[in-house]
Design brief:
Blueprint: H1 4-23, H2 40-65, H3 72-83, H4 85-100, H5 105-110, H6 114-132, H7 134-149, H8 153-163
Helix pairs in contact: 1-2, 1-3, 2-7, 3-4, 4-6, 6-7
């Protein structure tokens, strides 16, 4: 099976999540800048959540450009990704590599995958850090977001090399 149905399904789920997030935003009461200040926790949470969804969609898109076909385990790993993103992205990547072999484009692109291994470690570190300071936890989550903000250039390089 090709990847288009899986990609369309994932795009739809992400679009629904973004829509649901927007529905929770409330306009400020008043017209001055000060009326925005009480809303900054909700607004910053929305911005970071939107950023994470965008990063997930972007990296998902790149990963499936290096995927030839979809198998049952890839479908289940993708569904898991839509529910539990960080670990699930790594599992989906492993399923694709296992399905397409050690010489697949994706395997060549990710190599040792330091970003994929570092990200869950920072997520796990952020959980106990939140009990010490929510600022430390937020900084760790923001660091991971910035780490993945630029789509995975490794995949782009390998795909470009395959086309040449």
């Amino acid at each position: 099976m090709g990847t288009t149905r899986l990609e369309a399904f994932s795009d739809g789920v992400i679009a629904i999540l973004i829509t649901i997030m927007v529905l929770d935003l409330r306009p400020p009461i008043g017209e001055s800048f000060e009326t925005l200040l009480p809303l900054w926790p909700v607004l910053s949470s929305y911005v970071l959540s939107f950023l994470y969804l965008g990063i997930s969609w972007n990296n998902h898109h790149h990963m499936f450009h290096a995927t030839r076909a979809v198998t049952g385990p890839i479908l289940w790993a993708n569904l898991h990704l839509l529910l539990m993103a960080a670990i699930a992205f790594w599992i989906l990547q492993l399923c694709i590599i296992r399905s397409q072999g050690p010489h697949s484009l994706l395997r060549k692109a990710v190599g040792s995958d330091w970003k994929g291994k570092l990200s869950p470690a920072f997520y796990l570190l952020a959980i106990p850090a939140a009990f010490l300071s929510h600022w430390i936890a937020a900084a760790l989550y923001l660091f991971v977001a910035l780490l993945w903000l630029v789509p995975d250039r490794r995949i782009e390089r390998v795909l470009q090399g395959a086309e040449d």
